[in-house]
Design goal:
It is a single chain. The protein is of the alpha+beta class. It has a single domain, classed as Ferrous iron transport protein A (FeoA) (SH3 type barrels, Roll), CATH 2.30.30. The chain is about 20% helix and about 45% strand. It is built from two helices and six strands, in the order E-E-H-E-E-E-H-E. The protein has a six-stranded antiparallel β-sheet. Strand 3 and strand 4 form a beta hairpin. The protein is globular and about 30 Å long.
Length: about 80
């Protein structure tokens, strides 16, 4: 089952499966390392604020709206 990255809780991980958005957003997220098959871990989340994630050994804060567009498969 695929869910938006924004739905993961702190400490949970997911595998990127798709990015829903315009070409500019998709390109930017790919440049940041959010490529399909990449594992991401939520480090900090504060509703309604940004989501701090670890992707490819980097920490990146992304807006909740952007995190809603990144679909992940939950990794247990």
């Amino acid at each position: 089952m695929y869910i938006p990255l924004s739905m993961l809780l702190e400490g949970e991980s997911g595998m990127v499966v798709d990015i829903r958005g315009g070409r500019g957003l998709v390109r930017r997220l790919l440049e940041l390392g959010f490529t399909p098959g990449t594992r991401v871990k939520v480090l900090k989340t504060s509703s309604p604020g940004p989501v701090l994630v670890e992707v490819r050994e980097s920490r990146i804060a992304i807006g909740r709206g952007v995190a809603m567009k990144i679909l992940v498969e939950v990794v247990r």
